[in-house]
Design a protein that fits this description.
NAD(P)-bd_dom_sf; about 325 residues; six-stranded parallel β-sheet; Alcohol dehydrogenase
Length: about 325
């Protein structure tokens, strides 16, 4: 098969498409579509210290089972994993081997391209908002980075859970996107705006029971200040400085809970469990996949990585 490989860290120029032996495993999937995530770009750059080289990168995928148990042969599946592309070969290839327990049927409503954009964004969104923050009906959630992939997924999940959604970002979600349709209010991050005060003003002074910070670092002070008494702050990433100052007196008086969420801790099998919970929402139309901005054949994978590194709006998909 052909696969994207890197044996040293660096910019996308270190990536090469080469011929490799077909993978062996409990189940083998022919990849029809695999999206490129910012974490894939960071992986190639050497920012994921646990990655073992040489490696085929790529976390998210959708395809057809071509090897494994008879009952799965020909099944259309989707997947993602925090181990995929880091400690085991990933999805930016013609074939991928996975454990049978990692097989999850793709929602019929989604095309392969659409299904391949779901993995990381919706898994970390669900893991943070539902499984970690335990968001419940009637609560208010403020989503920092709502115009991004994870933030937009959180907004959809929160609306389905019956929560009130306040979106926070430098710009509103684009008209016609799923995130734009589900947020109840929007707070702009711009000079002169006290974001935490705006959130508190729109919640009767209380703040949000859950604040999902999909940005982190530069947004942490405002996110912390927006948490309601006994509320939960979810942190999944860092932009800018890795450290922030926290007013511990205010923290314990407010009884704030700060919860870190790392999707790379969910391997293929654990991520498949989340995808099985998400699938009915996509088949019903409650959840919408993220828009695909660009598609590339495997031979142009370096250009796909460069597009993501350059901050392209929307998802980038490789079609092996």
């Amino acid at each position: 098969m052909r696969a994207l490989r890197f044996d040293q860290f660096g910019d996308p120029a270190v990536l090469r498409v080469i011929d490799t032996p077909d993978p062996l495993g409990e189940a083998v999937i022919r990849i029809h579509a695999a999206s490129v995530n910012p974490s894939d770009v960071k992986n190639v750059a050497g920012l994921m210290e646990w990655t073992r080289l040489p490696r085929t990168p790529g976390r998210d995928f959708a395809g057809v089972v071509v090897g494994g148990p008879a009952q799965w042969l020909g099944a259309e599946v989707w997947g993602t994993g925090g181990d995929t592309g880091f400690t085991r070969d990933g999805s930016h290839a013609e074939l991928i081997a996975v454990p049978v327990e990692a097989l999850a049927r793709k929602p019929e409503r989604l095309s392969f391209d659409e299904a391949s954009t779901v993995g990381v964004n919706f898994v970390v969104a669900w893991y943070g908002a539902v499984q970690t923050a335990l968001l419940t009906r009637g609560e208010t959630i403020a989503v920092f980075g709502v115009s991004g992939g994870v933030g937009g997924a959180v907004a959809q999940i929160a609306r389905a859970a019956g929560a009130t959604v306040i979106g926070v970002d430098r710009r509103k979600p684009a008209p016609g996107t799923a995130a734009a349709a589900v947020i109840d209010q929007f707070v702009a991050i711009e000079p002169g705006v006290n974001v935490a005060a705006e959130i508190r003003q729109r919640t009767g002074g209380a703040g949000a029971q859950v604040v999902y910070d999909a940005v982190g670092g530069i947004t942490t002070p405002a996110a912390l200040a927006a948490v309601a008494p006994r509320g939960r702050l979810i942190v999944i990433s860092v932009v800018g400085s890795d450290t922030v100052d926290i007013d511990l007196r205010a923290l314990y008086h407010n009884e704030t809970r700060i919860l870190g969420v790392d999707s790379t801790k969910l391997d293929l099998v654990e991520s498949a469990r989340v995808l099985r919970q998400l699938a009915p929402h996509f088949d019903s139309g409650d959840f919408q996949p993220l828009p695909v901005a660009a598609r590339y054949p495997l031979g142009e994978a370096r250009e796909a990585y460069r597009a993501v590194a350059g901050g392209i709006a929307g998802r980038v998909v490789i079609n092996p």
